[in-house]
Design a protein that fits this description.
Number of helices: 6
Radius of gyration: 25 Å
Strand content: 15-25%
Helix content: 25-40%
Largest sheet: 9 strands, antiparallel
Order of helices and strands: HHHEHEEEEEEEEHH
Number of strands: 9
Number of domains: 2
Length: 206
């Protein structure tokens, strides 16, 4: 009963005015909660001849390379701004070393690396991107990647939900997650991987 009342309290601001009793009644009467059975009826979808059954949405890998590029660039920009905000003081370097550009075939990439540690190289693919542990060989202007990718990401789309993307990443299992959720989770993950305090200590020790 307590849980039901909590649900109702959350729904109360969303109820249309016509669902309230006559305004002529006292304020106390208008604020009386609906009976439990009425509330359950409100929360339970009514199935009828005109109702549309919920269909299982079919997701397929994205075919439009430009759409993949847009999603990748957005992720790159999120990481860039997060890194810029990590400066401990004006004029100080950001949390991670940063590089971005295009590789062969005009595929965008970005590279983030803690000081004196192996970094992470994000490279766009036809349907998503690959993340590899890597080091930048400055003299050769190239990256030395580990043989096994750290993560492999594929973007999915649905004809039923135009404009919506889902992400499937090896690091996150078999489930498809929304693009905003993936982006937020990645930023949170890298905050945990590279806490600002530990990086500042390494600079002092070196």
């Amino acid at each position: 009963m307590r849980k039901t009342r909590e649900i109702f309290n959350n729904l109360w601001p969303l109820l249309p005015w016509r669902a309230l009793k006559s305004r002529k009644k006292s304020l106390d009467e208008t604020r009386k909660p609906l009976p439990t059975k009425d509330l359950e009826a409100l929360l339970t979808p009514v199935k009828g001849a005109d109702s549309v059954e919920h269909k299982r949405v079919e997701w397929n890998p994205v075919e439009d390379t430009q759409r993949v590029r847009n999603a990748f660039i957005h992720l790159r920009d999120l990481f860039y701004h997060w890194n810029q905000k990590s400066k401990t003081a004006p004029g100080q370097p950001p949390r991670l070393m940063w590089e971005s550009g295009n590789v062969t075939g005009h595929r965008p990439y970005f590279f983030i690396q803690p000081w004196n540690e192996m970094g992470y190289l994000f490279e766009m693919t036809q349907r998503g991107w690959v993340i590899s542990r890597a080091e930048k060989i400055i003299n050769l202007d190239r990256f030395m990647r580990q043989l096994t990718a750290w993560d492999h990401v594929v973007l999915y789309e649905s004809n039923e939900l135009d404009g919506t993307l889902r992400v499937k990443a090896d690091q996150w299992g078999e489930d498809l997650v929304s693009m905003p959720l993936y982006e937020d989770a990645m930023i949170r993950l890298f905050r945990e991987l590279f806490p600002l305090e530990s990086l500042a200590k390494r600079r002092i020790d070196t």
